[in-house]
Amino acid sequence: MELAPELSDETITGADLQSERIESVQYARVTFIDVDFTDATVLACTFTDCTFRRCEFAGSTHRNSAYLGCQFTGCGFFAASYDGCKLTGSRIKSSRLRQVKVRSGAWDFMTLHNVTLDGCSLRDVRMTESDLTGLKARGVQLRDVDLTSAVLADADLREADLRGSIVYSIDPAETLLGGAIVTAQQAIVLAANLGLDVRAD
């Protein structure tokens, strides 16, 4: 199936887009239901206020694309990759992200309530003011991630690699951090967040 270059206020159901190259499309308020994006390549596309229900993104590649204010419900993301993408204001729920790779991009103001990140890697990603309540990210690579003003209550970051990330918003009293990898400077920040009086001497 070939997608139209521009579309708004429509519903696409059951489309097979496996291995398709989707480039420079502009979609607004489009609902995708049971659409198969397996191994698709999405380049320089913009989806605004779109809804994705039970869609499959396994093995898909997304580059320099934007998903602004979108809703993802019950979707599969196994081994998907995002490079330089913007997901500002989007919400992912009832979905599991397995072995997803994210390289650079803006994921600000996102909502990932109780989402599981399994074997994922996020590097150089901005997640300022995102709601990550209950996020399950044990052992995940979160390198150089901007977590400024992010909400991480009840999140599980045990054994996660947090080096280079901004961790001022992480409260060790509310977030599981056992075995997490941090730098000495980050350790000082986290200790201060616990209420310790950290001094050089």
Automatic annotation (TrEMBL):
Pfam families: Pentapeptide. It comes from the Bacteria. This is Pentapeptide repeat-containing protein.
